[in-house]
Amino acid sequence: MTAILGISAFYHDSAAALVRDGEIVAAAQEERFTRVKQDERFPAHAVRYCLEEAGLSPEQIDYVAFYEKPLPKFERLLETYLAFAPAGFRSFARALPLWLKKKLFLPREVRAGLGACRAPLVFLDHHESHAASAFFPSPYDEAAILTLDGVGEWSTTASGVGTGNRIRLDRHLQFPHSLGLLYSAFTYYCGFKVNSGEYKLMGLAPYGRPVYQEAIYKHLLDLRPDGSFRLDMAYFNYCQGLTMTGRRFHDLFGGPPRRPESEIEQRHVDLAASIQAVTEEVLLRIGRDLHARTRMKNLVLAGGVALNCVANGRLLREGPFESIWIQPAAGDAGGALGAALFVWHQLLDEPRWPGGSDFQKGSFLGPRFGNGDVKRFLNRVEAPARRFDEVELLDHVARLLAAGKIVGWFQGRMEFGPRALGARSILGDPRSPKMQAAMNVKIKFRESFRPFAPAVLQEHAHEWFGLRPGEESPYMLLVAPVLPRHHTDVSPEQQAVMASDPDLRRRVNVVRSTIPAVTHVDYSARVQTVGPEHNPRFHALLEAFHEMTGCPVLVNTSFNVRGEPIVCTPEEAYRCFLATDMDALVLEDFVLHKEDLAPEPVHAELRQRYLAQFQLD
Predict the structure, then answer these.
(1) Which of 144, 145, 338, 343 could form a disulfide with 132 if both were Cys (CB 3.0 to 4.6 A apart)?
(2) Are 200 and 192 in contact (CB under 8 A)?
(3) Secondary structure in 3-state letters for 368-391
(4) How far apart are CA 569 and CA 42, in angstroms?
(5) For 533-549, what is the mean pLDDT?
(6) More confident residue, 145 or 496
């Protein structure tokens, strides 16, 4: 037996993954245990979980793989600071103590975190880890590989080929020229948090028009036919400062960056649309060039930019590749998994046996809590829950959803990656015109313009969305159009609202389809197809809802509130349930109804704290 522990840490989204004899046994982000969003510290809790899931002690680990190389990264930072000196002194002074204390001594830090483990420590290139996470779990024997993010050591984009049990990256775009950092610059400028607010910018884009697209090409981005490019760094500040954008950027786009939580202007909406259009064009050009160079019919993707599901959808529909597979944990967390798999396949030369489906196990790789765990917790808090058998449970929950209730759904192993896929989910009826606003404001405590994703029965997905029969999107990483047959008539008055109303809430609340809660303003949807193989109970719930309503779709959003990680334990799910307007909570076979709970002041106070924190009412 060979056990390999993969680790990513010390930037954001630290994580651990355990691969045993080539099988992915466990993987989880540290934030799910510490409850610190995007926790960057050494993933001690995630490591402990992975070992427990595998039934191993630290001494039984054979290799430890770290997802990047610290010395080349430090070299890049020093060269960048020297190139911009003295302008970068404040940023340099802030970063250097952290490097001298911790990041330059990663072997020591990792050893300290692992305790009794004395296994060899392997450091991999950042984009090599991304590439391994994309190709090795994929269903393909051979594929083109593309990784895109902010920056690793030096590379910001890398491409190449995977064949059998080997990957080879032969083309790189290097810092400071980065598609990920370009997108993050607009994220920052539009008032959202870098490394997490990019989702918001992508969701905001369909409200606007790409009126700044040409300005981006003219001033910021020298884009070439093969998708490579150079940025004019005079407009940016991320090399030498503590912000993403500089004065020339602000002058070009009409003023200083938007203050977080302040009003979103039409200018910000159009900027979001513009950078999204540019990102899609860059990705399409890179994809066409990569296909021309490799002649591969399949493509695998990883890196933070690979979470841009709108661009992914266009690449699949308009690009030259027949099939695309995207690592569900495409960001830095997935680097832990890629590092472990790289050691197994590429360094130890162990074979792969790709088949009809991927090796990611639906990305259900986190902790699980059985009915015994749930019952003990419910007894401790004296919660009035009822236990159902399988058939009764599915019928009961489907009826709740069909009646317009919002249901917290906690089942099986937690998802690895940023998306809730039916294990730690909040569910609703997509046919309800009020569901989108209710979930955003009363459940998630987040901006009302943000769309929700549809979970749809795999066998019916092509009947509702622009997917080919049998085409899968199990990890919610592709955007597809809602088919015209499901569109509804929109009056001239509503069309005027859709086109120009400054209140985004009114725009999003215009009913555009028979499933308005998951239809974005441009008639698109971030689709999750659900089959019976990896999540049979969620598939069965969709079947029950379909049989009851004729609709094979449910709203599926992550089980958390804004600013907090997705819940991991029954206790966290219960707390979230109490503090929001969810109507029911399903913990494995147990169901709680909000109406059965006695009102407690502490829960009201918790809710008010959320409302005040996010300036909602």
Answers:
(1) 338
(2) yes
(3) CCCHHHHHHHHHHHCCCCEECCHH
(4) 21
(5) 97
(6) 145
The mean pLDDT of 301-322, rounded to a whole number, is 96
Residue 614 confidence (pLDDT) above 50:
no
Question: How far, in Å, CA of 579 to CA of 582, rounded?
Answer: 9
| 426 Rama class: left (phi>0) / alpha (psi -120 to 50) / beta | beta
| Rounded Cα distance, 15 and 27, in Å | 7
Q: Is 554 helix (H, G, I), strand (E, B) or coil?
A: strand
143: three-class secondary structure by DSSP: strand
- Six-digit token pair at 150? 């902010």
Q: What is the 3-state secondary structure (H, E, C) of 41-86?
A: CCCHHHHHHHHHHHCCCHHHCCEEEECCCHHHHHHHHHHHHHHHCC
Q: What tokens does 260 get?
A: 């977080």
336 and 15 Cβ atoms separated by less than 8 Å: yes
- Stated as kind and residue range, the H or E segment containing 530 is strand 524-530
State the Cα angle at 162 between 160 and 164, rounded to 5°: 160
Task: Give dist(CA 53, CA 502) in Å, integer.
Answer: 51
Q: How confident is the model at residue 242 (pLDDT cuts 50, 70, 90)?
A: confident
Phi, psi (rounded to 5 degrees) for 415? -70, 145
- What token pair was written down for 419? 């998306």
- Find out whether the peptide bond into 176 is cis, omega within 30 degrees of 0: yes
The answer to whether 149 and 130 have CB atoms below 8 angstroms apart is yes
Task: Report the half-sphere exposure of 88 (CA within 13 A, side-chain side).
Answer: 18
Cα 76 from chain centre: 27
- Return the structure tokens found at 480: 């597809």
Contact 351, 164 (CB under 8 A): yes
Exposure of 577 in the CB half-sphere (CA atoms within 13 A): 29
Please work out, in degrees rounded to the nearest 5, the angle formed at the alpha carbon of residue 157 by the alpha carbons of 11 and 89.
50
pTM of the model: 0.93
pLDDT at 592 over 80: yes
pLDDT of residue 284: 98
* Cβ-Cβ contacts under 8 Å for 244 (sequence gap 6 or more): 181, 184, 185, 187, 188, 189, 194, 236, 237, 238
Instruction: Give the residue, 475 or 506, on which the prediction is more confident.
Output: 475
Q: Which pair of structure tokens corresponds to residue 98?
A: 């952290």
Residue 406's alpha-carbon distances to 50, 397, 549, 552, in angstroms, are 32, 10, 16, 17
Handedness of CA 410, 413, 414, 420 (dihedral sign): negative
Which residues, listed in sequence order, are joined to residue 143 by a DSSP beta bridge? 162
Query: H or E stretch including 578?
Result: helix 570-579
Judging by DSSP bridges, how do beta strands 121-123 and 478-481 pair with one another?
A: unpaired
Tokens 């020298």 belong to residue: 222
Return the closest-CA partner of residue 66 out of 120, 23, 115.
120
In angstroms, the CA 108 to CA 112 distance is 6
DSSP code of residue 485:
G
**CA 558 to chain centroid:** 11
pLDDT at residue 391 greater than cutoff 60: yes
Which residues sit opposite 166 in a β-bridge?
Answer: 163
Are 291 and 205 spatial neighbours (Cβ–Cβ below 8 Å)? no
Contact call for residues 139 and 193 (beta carbons, < 8 A): no
Q: Name the residue among 431, 459, 344 with its Cα closest to residue 17.
A: 344
pLDDT of 193 over the 70 cut: yes
Half-sphere exposure of 284 (CA within 13 A, CB side): 15
In single-letter form, the type of residue at position 51 comes to L
* Orientation of helix 536-549 relative to helix 390-402, angle to 10°: 50
